[in-house]
Amino acid sequence: MRRGPLVEIDLDKISHNLRLVRNASPGRKIIGVVKADAYGHGMVEVSKVLMKGGVDSLAVAYLDEGVALREAGIQDIPVIVLFDNEPSEDFFRFRLTPVVHNLSFLREIASLASKKETSIGIHINIDTGMGRLGFPWYESDSIVDQVLAMEDLRVEGLMSHFSEADISDEDFSRLQMNRFEGALSLFRARGLNPLAHFANSAAVFRLPEAHYDAVRPGLALYGSSPYSPDAGLRAAMSVKTVLIDVRTLRKGESVSYGRTFVTTRGSLIGVIPLGYADGLHRAGSNNLDVLVRGKRAPVVGRICMDLTMVDLTEVDGSEPGDEVVIMGRQGGEEISVEEVADRTGTIPYEVMTSLGSVNRRVFTGEDSYGKDSSGRGS
After folding, report:
1. For 330, which of 53, 191, 264, 325 could close a Cys bridge (C-beta 3.0–4.6 Å)?
2. Closest CA to 292 of 319, 264, 255, 256
3. Helix/strand/coil (H, E, C) string of the chain?
4. Confidence class of residue 375 from pLDDT cuts 50, 70 and 90?
């Protein structure tokens, strides 16, 4: 038996979600965010599908992710590196576009370009209220002066990041937009014309005023709505395993560590080969459901490192070898990533990256060609 569940990625659903993003932001360029292994969906495979769907750029978190894309054959598209703040020859060697967040990196990457007798395109991050990375919005005038003094830099983009575009109160998001537009005006008044991009997945569907020149969707591409109105997105990830044992317990017997679950009747308890080491959050103990034979079966007892127990008493005929769906559809029932996130006290991003990146993936859909890729245990 191979460790961990099987993670199925339907690439056709990613194509579908990309079309919805395009319909919501007509005429804008699309920067597809594939950082963190495409949120656990497989960075290389997803990138190829997004390129086929006509995205204009890809965005990763760190330099090594960009290098991995280039080495995997992703060549004919700009790749933006969002967070890496260390100058490296690899930006030039692999034609990667750094996002610059501070004056030190701005100077260092310009110096490196000068030594190589070349220039490099950059995007500049303006901190409009996220408080994480970026030049403060109120220093934009000084930033323009610094950039114009560096002949080896080409300012190709100007960006910012929303802190709460996914909530109903839009006041702070609109304040961030006003700050960003002020910075953008300063750049353009000095003869620079960077590609302006701000809208994350939530803003793609909620704040059309924030679309500017390009949008930067991540979560929406993978089928999760970052804001409650249903945009027609389709979840691309399903997580499945099998029962490895079905045990009969009498009334009053306990299950798993700490005796947090005690049977109130004669019960059938199933054991699945999946635990917190495989990305199933321990907070789901006694609080998640799985699907077996098209019916919901509750997780009982504490989730262990390698195993989880489920109550099969109401599932007729269940036996070892039966498919167990952790996330996805079986028969007429479905367990969504949003449900798993809500019940474990987290967000869909964390569920996807936790389950998707460390387990064996298989790809379905027209672009899959029966491909199989693995995180751990390949």
Report:
1. 325
2. 319
3. CCCCCEEEEEHHHHHHHHHHHHHHCCCCEEEEECHHHHHHCCHHHHHHHHHHCCCCEEEECCHHHHHHHHHCCCCCCCEEECCCCCCCCHHHHCCEEEEECCHHHHHHHHHHHHHCCCCEEEEEEEECCCCCCCEEHHHHHHHHHHHHCCCCEEEEEEECCCCCCCCCCCHHHHHHHHHHHHHHHHHHHCCCCCEEEEECHHHHHHCHHHCCCEECCCHHHHCCCCCCCCCCCCCCEEEEEECCEEEEECCCCEECHHHCEECCCCEEEEEECCCHHHCCCHHHCCCCEEEECCEEEEEECCCCCCCEEEECCCCCCCCCCCEEEEEEEECCEEECHHHHHHHCCCCHHHHHHHHHCCCEEEEECCCCCCCEEECCCC
4. low
Looking at residues 291-305, what average pLDDT do you find? 98
13, 35, 222, 227: the catalytic one is 35
Query: Cβ(219)–Cβ(349) under 8 Å?
Result: yes
Known catalytic membership, residue 240: no
Can you read off the two tokens belonging to residue 306?
């390698």
- Sort strands 135-136 and 267-272 into parallel, antiparallel or unpaired: unpaired
Asked whether 150 and 119 are in contact (CB, 8 A), the reply is no
**Are 207 and 170 in contact, with CB atoms under 8 Å apart?**
yes
Mean pLDDT value across residues 271-292: 97
CATH code given to domain 237-335: 2.40.37.10
The answer to whether residue 52 is catalytic is no
Question: How confident is the model over 352-377, as a mean pLDDT?
Answer: 78
CA distances from 267 to 6, 234, 270, 313 (A): 27, 36, 10, 5
Q: Which of 52, 115, 116, 257 is catalytic?
A: 257
Domain-wise residue ranges, the chain: 10-222, 237-335
pTM attached to this predicted model: 0.93
CATH 3.40.50.2300, domain 10-222, yes or no: no
